[in-house]
Write a structure and sequence with these properties.
mainly alpha; 434 Repressor (Amino-terminal Domain); three-stranded antiparallel β-sheet; about 60% helix; about 5% strand; disordered C terminus
């Protein structure tokens, strides 16, 4: 499945929002972590603006989730890309090493 740049940006934002919600992380906390204003974080959070690759790497550490350039890995190290990456939710068995 080929996504447009806008669709990829929205899908990544949706994945980030889901991970943040599951971990109880707020946009205000991201403002502090990245030293950015609320408007900038909000645009990224809602998929209006892209997350720079460096910030995605930091965000992956903050969320303790392997989010890298629009792809993620499951606990076995299998890559999930495209729509599969954005829809991927680990099962409890996959959360256990």
């Amino acid at each position: 499945m080929n996504l447009t740049r806008s669709q990829r940006r929205s899908a990544i934002a949706e994945l980030i929002r889901t991970e943040m919600t599951e971990r109880g992380i707020t946009q205000s906390q991201l403002c502090e972590i990245f030293d950015l204003n609320k408007a900038t974080i909000s645009r990224r959070y809602h998929g209006i603006a892209s997350w720079p690759a460096e910030d995605l790497s930091i965000l992956a550490d903050v969320l303790n989730a392997p989010i890298t350039f629009g792809a993620i890995t499951d606990s076995r190290g299998d890559w999930k890309t495209g729509a599969a990456a954005y829809a991927y939710t680990p099962t409890p068995a996959e959360d256990t090493p």
